[in-house]
């Protein structure tokens, strides 16, 4: 067990179960060093997006690492104002240019822009067939978005990346995705460290000699949820993934399940300001 552990997507592609998220990592030296240190630790999964404005430095860090491109799983995303059929294909061309890559391992629709996401998905299907993306998926989609899209989709999304942490466990969305053979990927997987003092996390951290962050990442790992904890500090990157020397019992998992209170830190997909 370790950072090379993978889950298999519905198209047969393998995705490392744990990766590094780089949302709000500053373009330039900060994100460059964050990616370099993560790769040195053993991370092989990097998650970025055109919105983050740091694809260029992510790509440079991967190139400079000396690690073979096919050993690193790279995700990027099409932003809301880039959506639509032709716009999405251009957005991918722009992302690949910034990343200095011929393909990405996973390309996601960042948010379900009303009236556009089905058309955007058609572009992703074409990019997948052309080999520009090894796998395609969505982010922030609720079951009703997925139902609408699946009516017209020829290719099923491999993942749905959503806000998910102990206080927002997204059971309905997880159940829908599981039933349709899509994996769930968690953003804000640590709940932005807003409730590390929660009695359950404190109790389990003490029991296992771990930190609350490690308890959460282990819970996601055991739940087969792909997780991308974010940190630009090497020591924290190491800490977040030091989870392979203990196991949460079923009782531990049940206690974490009871923490779900629907505490959404980010925007609700149906209340997001899409500007349309």
Automatic annotation (TrEMBL):
Q: Keywords on this record?
A: NADP, Oxidoreductase
Q: Per UniProt, where does substrate bind?
A: 110
* Residues annotated as catalytic: 52 (proton donor)
Statement: the UniProt record of this protein carries the keyword NADP = yes
Q: Where is the NADP-dependent oxidoreductase domain?
A: 21-260
Q: Where is this site: Lowers pKa of active site Tyr?
A: 77
From which domain of life does this come? Bacteria
One MF term from GO for this chain?
Answer: oxidoreductase activity, acting on the CH-OH group of donors, NAD or NADP as acceptor
Protein family membership = Belongs to the aldo/keto reductase family.
Give the protein name, as stated in the record.
Answer: Aldo/keto reductase
Lineage of the species this protein comes from: Bacteria, Bacillati, Bacillota, Bacilli, Bacillales
């Amino acid at each position: 067990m370790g950072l090379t552990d993978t889950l298999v997507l519905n198209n047969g592609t393998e995705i490392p179960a744990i990766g590094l998220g780089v949302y709000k990592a500053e373009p330039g030296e900060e994100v460059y060093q964050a990616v370099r240190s993560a790769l040195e630790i053993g991370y092989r999964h990097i998650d970025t997006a055109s919105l983050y404005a740091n694809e260029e430095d992510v790509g440079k860090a991967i190139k400079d690492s000396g690690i073979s491109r096919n050993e690193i799983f790279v995700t990027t995303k099409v932003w809301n104002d880039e959506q639509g059929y032709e716009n999405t294909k251009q957005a991918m061309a722009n992302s690949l240019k910034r990343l200095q890559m011929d393909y990405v391992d996973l390309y996601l629709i960042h948010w379900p822009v009303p009236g556009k996401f089905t058309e955007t998905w058609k572009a992703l299907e074409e990019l997948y067939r052309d080999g520009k993306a090894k796998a395609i998926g969505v982010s922030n989609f609720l079951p009703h978005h997925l139902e609408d899209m699946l009516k017209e989709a020829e290719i099923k999304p491999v993942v749905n990346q959503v806000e998910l942490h102990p206080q927002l466990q997204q059971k309905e969305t997880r159940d829908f995705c599981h039933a349709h053979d899509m994996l769930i990927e968690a953003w804000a997987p640590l709940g932005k460290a807003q409730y590390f003092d929660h009695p359950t996390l404190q109790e389990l951290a003490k029991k296992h000699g771990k930190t609350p962050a490690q308890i959460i990442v282990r819970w996601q790992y055991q739940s087969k949820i792909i997780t991308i904890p974010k940190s630009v500090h090497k020591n924290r990157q190491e800490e977040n993934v030091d989870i392979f020397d203990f196991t949460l019992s079923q009782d531990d998992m049940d206690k974490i399940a009871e923490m779900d209170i629907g505490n959404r830190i980010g925007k609700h997909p149906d209340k997001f300001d899409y500007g349309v």
